[in-house]
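Entry 14. Ran structure prediction on the chain below.
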Amino acid sequence: MHNKTYPPITTMASMPQSKTSLPTFFFFFFFFLFSSFTIIHAIVPQNETFKFENSGEFGPYITEYDASYRMQDIFSSPFQVAFYNTTPNAFTLALRMGLRRSEQLFRWVWEANRGNPVGENATFSLGTDGNLVLAEADGRIAWQTNTANKGVVAFKLLPNGNMVLLDAQGKFVWQSFDYPTDTLLIDQYLRAKGPSKLVSRLSDRDNVDGPYSLVLEPKRLALYYKSKNSPRPNPYWYRIFTQQGSVENITLTSYPDTFEVEFTYALSSSTSDYRTMAEPLNNIPVGVLGMPVNNSTLSYLRLGIDGNIRLHTYFLNVRSGVWEVTYTLFDRDSHDESECQWPEKCGNLGLCQNEQCVACPLENGLLGWSNNCTAKKV
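Output, structure tokens:
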């Protein structure tokens, strides 16, 4: 252990005195103290607070998962906050992507309370204390941002779909981009220190965690599948970013000039060096995810119920064909990955070869594959 030496302690008696030193010192001390108190204990103005109730008629348009929904008055084109349900009296607070004028499918790109639904007359509110709360009709809190008395003065839904709570300086106290479920919007990210993964939905009907996850690891991005018979998740795909150091974060990035969408990433050893996956790193092959025609900004990446990765793009200024899948990870026409890597390709038991399901192993040997290819119950 090294012995530390310290400078001599300077006391008030040994400090040079002047007529203005003490008054000036106390002025700045109390100014700083008052400013800090004001910032920390700032309250949300009454005109910025809100309380929405989950009640009334359901909307008339088609939505993802064939859900019933009630839109709320929080809107930034093409995003809007809503309550939706796929089973009776079990509602999710979510963010919709899509406009009514296109009369096309609404898609859900962020959710607050997966696995913990609320009922009729539940409320979504922002109080003067700055806490954003989803609560049951009886007041039980189902979800909250835990931002009470942390300087929040306003809530905003930004044009990129990020919902944020702001302080008096306009800085983010909380943001929905820090809490993804199975979806990344443009400019959203995964981080080594969290959020570090996406988790699939179980089914169209059941809004709980499914068996698939997309995980940011120190040197790679990996897909995992957790079967009922496996004690731990098994990897079925990965993309290496670096052989040296570790990845600090990855961001889904759009380039409006070239209509490209890809992941950009930063290494923990660098504070400002952002790399794109299109740039080779240590001879590791990387590339662009998708190139939506005439638009890339309104896209999102989804880890699907089936464990596949897809890029969905919304075309704002058209009335038909507004949604298009512009990238699929496991695709027969892909030059990057084989469909046989995909756990859902041939069901629970089927054998895959050359992108096709070729056989079903049963007790009597290999038989022709069909959708009924499952293990015999014992």
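The CA atoms of residues 32 and 183 lie 42 Å apart. Will compare against last week's run tomorrow.
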